[in-house]
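Practice problem 4.
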């Protein structure tokens, strides 16, 4: 059976240019970077700095050294949460939202445990939208950092991050935006947003696994301590004292995922070639079509019906466990995600064990959505 791939929120498929770029890197310029004077090392080093510049342009960062290469969103969040240890004291607050991925909850909880700070959670309504009046009540001068996702992986909600950023700044709090789900659909403008940090994963944006970006404002990256110690992040090492390298190297200890960084640049260039406006418009038609078709099924319960959404449809069939539907639909050649989507608090809020999640990318089609609808109907018949 031909595969219909609707698990794009978990990871995207890779275009041929990306696959070819990985092979080209290892065949032609593979060497360790920043280390050798030899030609090959120089070629690899130069190639590794090119994507930093294209990503800087892509997200409109002020400086190239504000773009850090990471292994993904999780790495970026942990780097900042770890660095904030010295800025927090007992009684301070860290704020997240009710619809965060576990990777944007756990590192902040660990930070609170280390420092005696407390966690505030912006609640959401039954549509899966953050309740801004509650956010306004929670935020105060005691809030030191707010970390929210730009787009929810479990619900597809696009959050009002500009409002959150401005309000947080008004009380002196920093803002971290988890852009893991936004980066494949939206071109973020970090200067217009004025966020302090913005992280995303390469593998969700048509790039390789193990690649990612953490944008940080220069003033914050200067203030934060290094996350890991090791080679390449130092200026000078003696047994008495080590001084650190400047940005971005201070945060890039050890041999990085060189091919990953280079090819992430290829992936971002590719997406810009397709055009983010085109991607957003096309995916919106898929979302509208899919929502309408799925709603024609009896017993369809959509989970997450925010006014502002990307192309994620989370749903359940009345009286049927999501795993049963997911398993049967998979047997019919359709890859959807089933479970809690690493967002257990979201599932708890809706009092459900999980959902079936179809997440569309720009390479999906309405015919594939028709196949999903047919498969869900068949599964429903078999299970009831
Ligand atoms: N945040 C969100 C909203 C996500 O969807 C994901 C990935 N599912 C992550 C963070 C973590 O990304 P990664 O596993 O690539 O580090």
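Answer key:
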């Amino acid at each position: 059976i031909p595969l219909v791939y609707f698990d794009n929120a978990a990871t995207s498929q890779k275009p041929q240019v990306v696959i070819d770029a990985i092979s080209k890197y290892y065949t032609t310029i593979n060497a360790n970077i920043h280390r050798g004077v030899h030609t090959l090392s120089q070629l690899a080093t130069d190639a590794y700095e090119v994507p930093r510049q294209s990503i800087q342009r892509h997200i409109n960062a002020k400086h190239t050294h504000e773009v850090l290469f990471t292994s993904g969103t999780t790495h970026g969040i942990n780097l900042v949460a770890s660095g904030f240890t010295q800025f927090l004291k007992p009684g301070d607050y860290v704020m997240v939202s009710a619809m965060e991925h576990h990777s944007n909850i756990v590192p902040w909880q660990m930070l609170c445990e280390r420092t005696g700070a407390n966690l505030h959670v912006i609640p959401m309504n039954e549509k899966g939208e953050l309740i801004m009046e509650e956010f306004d009540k929670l935020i105060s001068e005691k809030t030191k950092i707010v970390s929210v996702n730009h787009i929810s992986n479990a619900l597809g909600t696009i959050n009002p991050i500009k409002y959150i950023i401005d309000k947080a700044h008004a009380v002196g709090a920093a803002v971290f935006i988890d852009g893991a789900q936004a980066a494949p659909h939206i071109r973020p403008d970090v200067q217009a947003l004025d966020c302090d940090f913005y992280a995303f994963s390469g593998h969700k944006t048509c790039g390789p696994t193990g690649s990612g970006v953490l944008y940080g404002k220069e003033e914050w990256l200067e203030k934060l301590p290094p996350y890991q110690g090791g080679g390449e992040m130092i200026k000078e090492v003696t047994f008495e004292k080590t001084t650190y390298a400047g940005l971005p190297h201070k945060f890039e200890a050890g041999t990085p995922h060189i091919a990953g960084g280079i090819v992430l640049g290829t992936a971002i260039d590719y997406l810009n070639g397709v055009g983010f406006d085109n991607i957003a418009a096309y995916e919106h038609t898929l979302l509208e079509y899919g929502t309408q078709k799925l709603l024609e099924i009896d017993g369809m319960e959509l989970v997450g019906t925010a006014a502002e959404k990307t192309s994620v449809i989370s749903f359940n069939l009345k009286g049927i466990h999501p795993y049963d539907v997911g398993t049967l639909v998979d047997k019919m050649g359709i890859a959807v995600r089933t479970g809690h989507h690493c967002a257990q608090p979201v599932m708890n809020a809706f009092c459900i064990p999980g959902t079936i999640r179809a997440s569309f990318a720009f390479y999906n089609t309405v015919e594939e959505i028709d196949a999903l609808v047919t498969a869900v109907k068949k599964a429903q018949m078999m299970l009831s």
